[in-house]
Amino acid sequence: MDKEKRIAENSINENNTEKLAFHKPKHFARKKKGVTFLVILLVLVLLCAMGFGAYKLYGILFKNKGFDDSTAFYFTSNILSEDGGDFEAVGSIDFDIYNYADTLRTSKEKVEDFEIKVTAGGKDITKKVTVTTGERAMEADIRSACNVNIVVPRQYHNKKIDVEVVSKPLQITLKGSFSYEPSWGYEIKDDGNCVELVLFANEDTSLKVEWDEKKLIADSTNPYIEAAGIDSESCTVALAGSMSSSIYFFKTDTEDKFTNNSKAFKISESKKTVKAENKSASKETE
Questions:
Q1: What is the pTM of this model?
Q2: How far apart are CA 245 and CA 281, in angstroms?
């Protein structure tokens, strides 16, 4: 009987020992929850500190620009871009400047003005070109466009023209390179006894040709001279794009020399409309 009692007591003690070995006291669970809460709290405090620091840094970097959000300032073009590009231009360089990116995004800040710089072969020729623009200032939240027209002098016609446009007050630079061809031009060839005036056009145009009758006598068989009258000191020449035509003149003094800069000729665009020569006639006179 005593033996059975001892066996029962030993079984109870073993069960109690197993319970004590695997049961965690309540104060350990409370301690773990406290550590987890503290870690989360420290992470939140750190994130708040980092966010506040970033905000202050942004304010320091951009406070002098005068804009809270630079993406709200739009300065774009139908041709020019911040990366630039290569284009062809005939007669004049034309492009538009906008204060919007698309139908949904219009500048939240006013475009006060913009500067235009024109270079040829790396040389600044801004003061030598003729620039015509519309209203450069563009109000905020109103979709606006400004057309720019640039006419390049004759001496730069064979060079690539680079254009840069810089906005104000926030500076955004738009640029582009243009292979420029005049809408029309001429060349004077002097062979000693007579002078050949070669006129050419890159687009449909009419030209008024005037000459000094004291130094030059026009070839009366030329159709343009016939149309103007043999006693006339000028005539009108109409050319279609990519065509050319020649008029010959006899010198009154063979010692005179005529070049492209000769003042004996005056050539300008004419408002008078005449029928252009056909291509076959033009090629024969080249």
A1: 0.60
A2: 8
